[in-house]
């Protein structure tokens, strides 16, 4: 995973409660006015092992006994370079915290999702789609 950061206490991306937000690099959309344009390049940061990311996310979700939701951000979470990594993370998170609310922010449009992109719909609760 090309991890930019894990934000443990993010309130901007949640309609209820606090989120743990995962930010990755790599985005093919390059939307005008993007507030994360520094994350467009897939090689902006070195790869981080998914197991390390997962461990940090699981610890952050219930840190200090306060349950948090999970938000997938980028770059572009559903970009080919990121999709397998995010699928792994959300599958594992749902195993440990089946009631967690997972948000996914994507510049892709749901009606145009590939079959692979549609797979993430089995694990997320809120999809915010379309160009920014």
Structural write-up:
The protein has 132 residues and is an alpha/beta fold. It has 3 helices and 5 strands. Strands 1-2-3-4-5 form a 5-stranded mixed sheet, covered by helices on one side. Helix 3 (115-118) links the parallel strand 4 and strand 5 (126-128). Helix 1 crosses helix 2. The longest helix is centred in the middle third of the chain and has 17 residues, at 80-96. The protein is globular, with a radius of gyration of 14 Å. The two termini are 23 Å apart.
Please name the defining characteristics of this protein.
five-stranded mixed β-sheet, globular, alpha/beta, single chain, 132 residues
Structural class: alpha/beta
Give the integer mean of the pLDDT values. 92
Secondary-structure element pattern, one letter each: EEHEHEHE
State the low-pLDDT regions, or none: none
CA-to-CA gap between the ends?
23 Å
Sequence-ordered SSE layout with sheet pairings:
Layout: E1 3-10, E2 19-24, H1 50-61, E3 69-73, H2 80-96, E4 102-105, H3 115-118, E5 126-128
Parallel strand pairs: 2-3, 3-4, 4-5
Antiparallel strand pairs: 1-2
Helix pairs in contact: 1-2
Gist?
The protein has 132 residues and is an alpha/beta fold. Helix content is 25%, strand content 20%. The protein is built from three helices and five strands, in the order ββαβαβαβ.
């Amino acid at each position: 995973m090309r991890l930019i950061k894990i934000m443990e206490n993010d309130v901007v991306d949640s309609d209820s409660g606090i989120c743990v937000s995962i930010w990755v690099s790599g985005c093919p959309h390059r939307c005008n006015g993007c507030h994360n344009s520094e994350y467009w390049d897939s090689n902006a940061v070195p790869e981080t092992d998914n197991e390390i990311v997962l461990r940090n996310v699981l610890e952050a979700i219930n840190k200090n006994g306060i349950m948090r939701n999970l938000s997938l951000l980028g770059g572009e979470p559903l970009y080919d370079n990121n999709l397998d990594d995010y699928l792994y993370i959300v599958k594992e998170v749902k195993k440990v915290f089946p009631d967690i609310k997972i948000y996914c922010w994507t510049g892709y449009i749901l009606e145009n999702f590939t079959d692979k992109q549609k797979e993430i719909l089995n694990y997320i609760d809120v999809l915010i789609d379309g160009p920014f």
